[in-house]
Each structure stands twice: as structure tokens, then as C-alpha cells.
From TrEMBL:
It is an enzyme of class 2 (transferase). It comes from Artemisia annua. The keyword Acetylation does not apply. This is Nicotianamine synthase. Its EC number is 2.5.1.43.
Length: 326
């Protein structure tokens, strides 16, 4: 039984429990999730269902809805990957792809998102260095826009190490910066499972963990545990998460899995935003890591008290990245 208090939460729960199985059934019948009218329409319906504010506790949903949620997250991840691969191939056909990034329909949002994440990082990054010298992005994909934007406009002296498990994806991504004299030197691409990367992790001042690295709470917790073991003391870990009904689109990062880290802030979205952002710092002293995640409550994300940061949304159903810091 699901107990709800707020009227909007009740309506959200009814809508989620009724509509998500219907959308999932339609999506599961598609032959491919490559960009097309049918794919865009179905994911647009899903996102519009999940965007309205609600206080839904994902952990209390019935087992059948939990199963649908897990499957939808994986479908969203697959569709997002195919969308990025499609545009990466187009951009890679140009002599200098970086001169044509604006053909990606949502590139302007990455510019705004990069500024937001840079501002957030500035609030919490405190070492003898003014800016981080080495940054890693885990799960960079075929369109490493986060690294490109941060390297181009905000962290101009920083080296970015991009990790992806797929060698073909990395080849597509590296093609985007290969013709640029500056970024080709400061953007490094590693084909590796991050779980196999160990002592190299201590070399990074900041590590970004993509939302789709670790598709459920157990997988995500194992990755975070691995990072906690090998990251440098005092280094920053930035993660993307989800809250409320948006957790039907992306995995949730519960603060309880961040053993070994001090959670600095949790940014939740507002209006038509999807991703939350969790910023944490590895403890300055080593701690014991608990490998048991059975106690985790994936609906327990709590917001910290921060200033408002605003990014205007864009149109693609899987790409709304406007965020506010609660």
C-alpha cells in the first residue's frame, strides 16, 4: 500500500502507475530507439508524465511498478546513447567538428549546464590550486559535451580524461577534438571499465560520474565504492541523480551509498528538469567502507540549503537539464 499526503503527489502516483506500463509496452515493441518521430513521441510522453513536481517515494512503489521503472531507465539510456551517436557521426564528418557543435539541437543547453556545473564546483573546490588541473569524466559517451564545454570556456588549463567502456564510442568522441590544437592536447580518452581503473584515480582533482554509469542502486553503489577506495583524499566527486517521478528516467543516487565522502550539496530540479546533482568530497582521512547496501532507501534524497541556480530548458525529451539548488 502506498501512503500519500499531498493531492498533487496522489495524482502523480496515479498517473505514473497507470501510464508508465502503457508507455513501456509501446516502447518495448519498437524495433530500434534510433532518432525517429515514433521514438521522440513516446519519450516525450514519458518525460511529460515524470516532470511535474511530486513527493513520490520510489522505494514504496509496488514491485510491478519498480520493475517497469528499472526497464524504462535502461530504455532511456539506450535511446540517449543512440541520439548522441547519431550526432557524433554527423559532427565527425566535418574537417573541424568543434566549429559545428551548434548543429546538435541542444548544444546551447550544454553551454548553460557547463556554466552551472562550473559555478557549483567553484563553490566547493578549495585547494592550494585555483582550479583543478586534472578532471576525469566517467561514462563520457560519443558526445563528451560536458568535458568539451568545461575545457573550452571554464577550465582552460585543465586536462580532461574521459573514460568509456566502448572503444568505438571513444573513437567517435576523440574525432570531435582531434583537429583542435588546444583540446586535442587536453582531452584524453581511455577505453576501460572504470572498475578496472585503480591507482590512476588518485591523480584526479575532480571526477564526474555520468547518470547512466550504474543503472540501478546496487550497480551505482559498487562504482561509488570503487571510487571511494582509489580517489585522492579531499578530491571532489560530482554525480547526477534523479528525484520523485523523474526517477523513472534516471537512476537515483542515495547519499547513504556515498560512504567515504562528505556530501556537500544536493541539487534537485524544478519544473521540467530531470537530473539532480550531488556534490561530495572524499574524506581527508581513510574510512571503512560498508559493502552491504540492503538497507538503502532510494527515495530518501534530502536537499541541502543553497542558492538558486537556473538554466533554461530545451526541447528534447531526454535532455531537460534546467536545475535549481534547493
Amino acid at each position: 500500500m502506498v501512503i500519500v499526503i499531498e493531492t498533487d503527489s496522489c495524482m502523480s502516483y496515479i498517473g505514473i502507475s497507470k501510464s508508465t506500463p502503457e508507455i513501456y509496452e509501446k516502447l518495448s515493441k519498437l524495433e530500434t530507439f534510433k532518432p525517429s518521430k515514433d521514438v521522440d513521441n513516446l519519450f516525450t510522453q514519458l518525460v511529460r508524465l515524470c516532470i511535474p513536481h511530486s513527493a513520490i517515494n520510489i522505494a514504496t512503489l509496488p514491485a510491478n511498478i519498480q520493475e517497469i521503472r528499472s526497464k524504462l531507465i535502461r530504455l532511456c539510456g539506450e535511446a540517449e546513447g543512440l541520439l548522441e551517436a547519431h550526432f557524433s557521426l554527423i559532427l565527425g564528418s566535418f574537417k573541424n567538428p568543434l566549429h559545428h557543435l551548434n548543429i546538435f539541437p541542444y548544444y546551447s543547453n550544454y553551454l548553460k549546464l557547463g556554466r552551472l556545473e562550473y559555478d557549483i564546483l567553484n563553490q566547493h573546490y578549495s585547494t592550494t590550486a585555483e582550479t583543478p588541473k586534472r578532471v576525469a569524466f566517467v561514462g563520457s559517451g560519443p558526445l563528451p559535451f560536458t568535458s568539451i564545454v568545461l575545457a573550452s570556456y571554464h577550465l582552460k588549463d585543465t586536462t580532461f580524461h574521459n573514460y568509456d567502456i566502448d572503444s568505438i564510442v571513444n573513437s567517435m568522441a576523440s574525432r570531435l577534438v582531434s583537429a583542435d590544437h588546444d583540446l586535442s592536447k587536453r582531452m584524453v580518452f581511455h577505453t576501460a571499465n572504470i572498475m578496472d581503473v585503480t591507482h590512476e584515480l588518485k591523480d584526479y582533482d575532480v571526477i564526474f560520474l555520468a547518470a547512466l554509469v550504474g543503472m540501478n542502486i546496487d550497480e551505482k553503489a559498487k562504482v561509488i565504492q570503487h571510487l571511494a577506495k582509489y580517489m585522492a583524499l579531499g578530491s571532489i566527486l560530482m554525480l547526477r541523480s534523479a528525484h520523485g517521478a523523474r526517477a523513472f528516467l534516471y537512476p537515483v543516487v542515495d547519499p547513504d551509498v556515498l560512504q567515504g565522502f562528505n556530501v556537500l550539496s544536493i541539487f534537485h530540479p524544478d519544473d521540467d528538469v530531470i537530473n539532480s546533482v550531488v556534490i561530495s568530497r572524499k574524506f581527508l582521512e581513510p574510512v571503512n567502507i560498508d559493502n552491504n547496501y540492503d538497507h538503502l532507501d532510494i527515495g530518501s534524497l534530502m536537499a541541502s540549503s543553497c542558492k538558486y541556480c537556473d538554466i533554461q530548458p530545451f526541447n528534447h525529451p531526454l535532455g531537460h537539464m534546467k536545475m535549481i539548488d534547493e
